[in-house]
Design goal:
Bound molecules: calcium ion
Shape: globular
Largest sheet: 9 strands, antiparallel
Structural class: alpha+beta
Distance between the termini: 65 Å
Order of helices and strands: HEEHHHEEEHEEHEEEEEHEEHEH
Number of strands: 15
Radius of gyration: 24 Å
Strand content: 25-35%
Amino acid sequence: MICLCSLFRLTLILMHLLTLVKTKNDKGLVKLIVKPLTETFCFPPFAEKTRFQYPRDCGQIMLNGVKASGVYTIYINGNKVAPLKVSCDMDTDGGGWLVFQRRQNGGTNFFRPWADYEVGFGDPADEFWIGLAPLHALSSQARYELRVDLRDGGSTAYGYYARFHVGSNTTNYLLRLGPFLGNAGDSLMYHHGRVFSTPDKDNDGSLTNCAESYRGGWWYHNCHQSNLNGRYGDTSHSRGVNWYSWKGHSHSISFVEMKMRPLKLADLRNKRRRKHTQP
Ligand SMILES: [Ca+2]
C-alpha cells in the first residue's frame, strides 16, 4: 500500500518537472518559456488560448477565438471590476462588431430622458441603447469604425463610417465621424460635430426642441436626416425610425443595428487576406 508520505513526495516531484513551451507574443515572435509540468498539462485550455483575459470590446472577444454572435462580457479599458454585457455581431463583414443600439419590435420605449440615455437601457439580447457614457469610454479606447445595418420588408442596406467617436459628458457626447461608404446613402454625416439632445435636454441647433418633436434622443442639428432612436412604427413625418437617404422621413424602418469595431481589427484581417492571396 502506498503511504501518504510517498504520494506527497511524488506530487512534489511532478510539480518540479519543467517543460519547455513555445508561445507567440503580440508581435508574432516565437519564444520558448519554461513552465511547471502541472501548469502545462492541467490548465492549458484557458491559460494558453485566451489571449485577452479581460477583453475590452467584441474585437478582442473575436481574437480570443469566439466565432458566434451573441451576448458576451467585456471590460472597458480592461478594468476587471467593471464587467459589461454587450451584444457582439460576429457574422457581418468579418465580425468583431460591438452592437450598441438595436430596434426590432418596438417593445422598448426610446422616448426617454437624458439620465436614461446617459447610462443606457433595454436588453442587449433584444432592443437596447448601450448608453452615452459607455459609448464615450468604448470609443476612446482605440480608433473605431461605425456600421449601421438597416432591414425592412426583405431588403437590407448599410452605412459605414471610417471613424467613430463620442465625446465625454462635458461635450454633451459630441459625435465625430470619418468618411462614408455603403448602399443606404449617408444620413448621419449631417450630425457629425453635433451634440446629443433628449426631450428634457435641448442641445440642438433648432429654435424648437427636436428630441421632443421627433420622439427620441439623437445628435440633432436642425433637426435630422436620421432618427434611429425615434418612435418605432410611427410613419408621421420625421418621428419614426428614419434613415432619410434610404426610406425618407415618413417610413419607420423595422430593423436597425448600430455597431462599432476597432479599425486595427480590419487592418489585421486585410493583412492576412493579402498574405493569403499573394502568389
Ligand atoms: Ca432647440
